[in-house]
Here is the input.
Amino acid sequence: MTKYPARQHALNVKKHLKTKIKDLSDYALFLSGSFQESYKYSDTAKVFRQERYFYYLTGCNVPSSHVFYDLNKEELILFLPEIDYDDVMWSGMPLSLEEAQKKFDVDKVLYERDIDNYLVKYDINLTTDINQSNKKYSNFLKQSDKRLFYALDESRLIKDDYEISLMRKAAQITDNSHLAVMSALPIETNETHIHAEFVYHSIRQGSKHQAYDPICCAGPNCGTLHYVKNDDSMEGRSSVLIDAGAEWENYCADVTRCFPISGVWTPEHIDIYNAVLDMQSQTMAMIKPGASWDEIHLKAHKVLIDNFLHLGIFKGDKDEIFKSHVSTAFFPHGLGHLLGLDTHDVGGYPNYNDADPKLRYLRLRRDLQQGMVVTDEPGIYFSPYLIELAMKQPEQAKFIQTDVVEKYLPIGGVRIEDDILVTADGYDNLTGITSDPDEVAAIVQKGRSRDPSHFHNVV
Ligand SMILES: [Mn+2]
Here is the structure.
């Protein structure tokens, strides 16, 4: 397979749509991609990010394109924008129809001027939403049909071999970039340097965009889940947490690693690191088709409680501790989420109003299926804010040994995150960068043995 399998994706969407709309004879699909936006009062272009549903049906990154899918004829037609000859001087010639036909797995490529001829064919042209790209066709379009989103999301849920190969490439670039970060402590004295090193090595490998804004933190900052300031000094701190993933042809990686700045784990840091590793390895072992992600997530809480009892952070009966939800003060987020064209990919159907606080932030609420890619990312955090909230609730506070908690505050938190493909009989870990604590320490030490002049830096 040399082309992004857009026609198969369109067939997938039709299959799922058919379960919701028995007779599709009056229906077609019309989706629009993103357009190139500028900043307000400026002619500077914003970073272009293709609309993901459109990309799934085309594999096309050309701004201001549209796609029409004739559900009856199973014919997929890509519409490119008209050539703007005033822009050719600045941007060069755009892709011709012939070039686009060769490049994309679609039945036809036409210019935008032909769109009307297609939209009149069917009574109902389903679209995701009416926006600046497609509002001129709004009379022909039916937006935000839940059945369309269902069909698109169910299709994107299961990755085919082509998509998996793109995700493996994103994962590989991400592995190398994490290795580079762990290896460059002599030139990393501020969180910004961690961020810079990761992005530099991703771009060098051809990944121009990150899947999401990297989270690079040291010391107590590691306790803030989505810390993106990335600008604090690392001096006097012992721990680093970096959550960063490259993107490859719009497919994401999402990986977190933690390491000791000195190359030697402090006793507190390794206590927590091993507990998180235990949460990850016990949950990963449960991954296979048919397994309940809710149960796997709750298993992570049970492993946390076992470890906290062993470390003396909790005291009391483990079943009572589990029922009290006190573990959410230290592991507040979900064990993992779907991954694909989006970092938090579609199809997980989270319930942010769940009465159970352990499940409230779990972004994947369904059984696993072969072809899903999920993150397995347990974490343990020492957030003074969350601990204080728990201490105000007597039914939780009674299990927490505050004097023991105190000694862990300086490390902030630990998260270990890998990207996991669900296979026919288990799983395949797409993430290759080691999380073994001895190997991680050895990588940091090896990097530390080098003089700063060894590294590619100007300041
Ligand atoms: Mn993640």
About this structure: Residues 254, 337, 375, 377, 417 surround manganese (II) ion (CB under 6 Å).
